[in-house]
Amino acid sequence: MAKPEKKLQELKTRLLEVGDLNHINALLGWDQSTYMPPGGAEARGRQSARMARMAQEKFIDKKIGRLLDDLRSYEKSLPYDSDDASLIRVTRREYERALKVPPEFIGELNEHGTRSYQDWTEARPANDFSRVRSNLERTLDLSRKLADYFGGYEHIADPLIDFADYGMKASTVRALFADLRDQLVPIVRSITSQPPADDSVLRKHFPEADQLSFGESVVRQLGYDFSRGRIDKTHHPFMTKFSLGDVRITTRVREDHLGECLFSNMHEAGHAMYEQGIDMSFEGMPIGGGTSAGVHESQSRLWENIVGRSRSFWEYMYPQLQAHFPEQLKDVSLDTFYAAINKVEKSLIRTDADEVTYNLHVMLRFDFELQLLEGTLSIRDLPEAWHERFEHDFGIVPPNDSDGVLQDVHWFAGIIGGSFQGYTLGNILSAQFYGAALKAHPEIPDEMKQGKFSTLHNWLRENIYRHGSKFTAPEIIERASGSPLTIEPYIDYLRTKYGSLYVL
After folding, report:
1. Domain spanning 170-499, CATH architecture
2. Has 268 been annotated as catalytic?
3. Strand ranges (DSSP E) for 432-504?
4. What is the per-residue pLDDT across 158-200, written as a single tens digit (0 to 9) for each?
5. Which of 493, 487, 463 is nearest to 475 (CA)?
6. How far apart are CA 27 and CA 241, in angstroms?
7. Where are the domains positioned within the chain?
């Protein structure tokens, strides 16, 4: 019988083939979202489907199953947190899940998502929901079918939530969101009843090329490694990865609003620095990526908000911004700018929303996902339901579908279910992780005033990034912060920060 080390190497060789196929497919998706001409959409859908199907076929090969069985005793002989034990454990979990989904279905889902995305890029600027309605109806059908491969669920959304945030289900998220909402809504009401901050300084003309240049400078200083990454423009910003040596981000620019490009860059760089910080020996393996949507979003939101909208950060960075835009900002004080970037208001667009109201946008989408999957809401009625719910939660009615149901790419390029809860989980965790980093290094805010971000970055790399998905989200949270997921640090953070800007 072959030694376990030899079997493990064979397993890694096979897993690397799967990883390469998935990364090639990611490259196809990045190209479609950045430089591909619209005429390539149909072929790209076919190509993407082929790659996804091949990856699934290779992953569920019986030889991988036999290798995993043969390696059980070897896994048990190793410490739980060893790299080899973790790889075997995580691969087995993913393998057993993948066995339930036919490769043909994976191909079909990928092809549909690719073509649906292309239609969305044209439908949103045209404010034409009718163009994507049939696509969305099929997406819903496919999402339900995917969930049904995992029978015995409590709620049809549970398997789909589990894909993104392993171990969580609809009831868990509902309970967490209810607690958060109870504490959040009074803060929202209190702040939005007061005169809003003046953010006109952000709404001058800021040339695209200058915004892109400054945005690149910012994320480079935060620690995003351009020898293993790049920035390109797209319709809806995202991070993607083709290897641990090639982690890319995208952005978008509005010349009439400074915040769009700047904070998108910091958000996506947060995702990318997580991936760039993973142990290089995990390349192409199931443990070679972030552990969950929630933990991943904790990093994008930490760098975008807790760092990127902090006074400490701008005490250092604001003179650089003024030098970049002397005409627009020469007479604007730091106090005025800081208040502007932290303005709280009920607004239409999730990605532009402030820290205080942002989670209400997520909760709305999460609730709609559950209703759509349950069949209590139809795709046909979704735009009107969106308008009604928005008026109820925000007191404003979207003027069109472009700023309503069409604004987010997720349902038009992926599945319905599990797409949004990670953003709020990430907000909660961002404060919890940052609090743990501050406990270990109280000097971090003062260092940021000097433009030093390495202490924070190194703490995150050591406690979160390097592990990839060796550990589940609850395990990482406990190991890094010393406690399970809790909303208290996040609420305390909001009260402290916004209590200095508004009366709370």
Report:
1. Orthogonal Bundle (1.10)
2. yes
3. none
4. 999 999 999 999 999 999 999 999 999 999 999 999 999 999 9
5. 463
6. 8
7. 4-126, 170-499
